[in-house]
Amino acid sequence: MTDKTRDGAFALTRRTLVESCAAAAAATGFGVSARPAFATEPGDPAPQMLPVRLTVNGTAHDLTLDTRTTLLDALREHLDLNGSKKGCDHGQCGACTVLIDGRRINSCLTLAAMHEGDAITTIEGLGTEEQLHPLQAAFLHHDGFQCGYCTPGQICSSVGMLSEAKAGWPSHVTEDLVGKADFTDAEIRERMSGNLCRCSAYPNIVAAIREVADSSAGTEL
C-alpha cells in the first residue's frame, strides 16, 4: 500500500492513500451504495402508488408516484426540473421554494399528491433566456448570488413575497399594519428570512428586491 523511497523506507503517496481508503470502505461497509428512495425492511407493506397530474409551468404532467413523494422530489427526480434545490430537506433553508397558485411554499415539506389541480411555478417557469423575469434580471444586475445554489429559491420567494406585500400582508417589522409596506432593508430582510444564503450575499439580494419593488409598484410580477 506504500511506495519505497531510495533509502528503502516506505512513503505514503496520494495514490496509495486513495486506494487504502477505498479498500477500507469496501471492507467495513461504509461505502456509498445504491438504495431505493424509501428503504424497506422485511415485512414492510409495499409502496402505495398513485396517479397524479401536476401542472408545472403551464404544462400538465401525468405521473405515477409513491404517495410519500414530496413535491420537490417529483420536480427533480420525475420531471427533471432541477432548478429547485434540495438543501436541508427540512424546510429550514428555502432553497426548494416554488410557487403554488402564486404563493411561495417549501416544496420539500409538501407531498406531490396534495397539489393535483394547483398551478405550480418553478424557477424555470418565471422567465426565458430571451426575456428574464424582472427579479432574475435584478439579481444579475446586483450580483445577488455567488455559488448560486440558493438563487432559484431566493427568486421564487421574492416573487411570492412581493405579492404578499402588495396584498397588504404585514410582517413582524411592519410599522403601519393597515397601510402599504415600506420596503426598507429591515422589511425585506424580515420577509425573506426563510431563505438562507451560505455565501452571505444578503446585501445584494436586498438591493435587487428593492429595485424591483420600487419599479413594479402597482403592477403584477
TrEMBL record:
InterPro entries recorded: 2Fe-2S-bd, 2Fe-2S-bd_dom_sf, 2Fe-2S_ferredoxin-like_sf, 2Fe-2S_ferredoxin-type, 2Fe2S_fd_BS, Aldehyde_Oxdr_Iron-Sulfur, Beta-grasp_dom_sf, TAT_signal
Domain 2Fe-2S ferredoxin-type: start-end pairs: 50-126
SUPFAM superfamilies: 2Fe-2S ferredoxin-like, CO dehydrogenase ISP C-domain like
Keywords, comma-separated and alphabetical: Iron, Metal-binding, Oxidoreductase
A Pfam family matched in the record: Fer2
Highest taxon listed in the record's lineage: Bacteria
Gene3D superfamilies for this protein: 3.10.20.30, [2Fe-2S]-binding domain
Entries under NCBIfam families matching the protein: PRK11433.1
Protein name per the record: Aldehyde oxidoreductase iron-sulfur-binding subunit PaoA
Species per Swiss-Prot/TrEMBL record: Methylobacterium cerastii
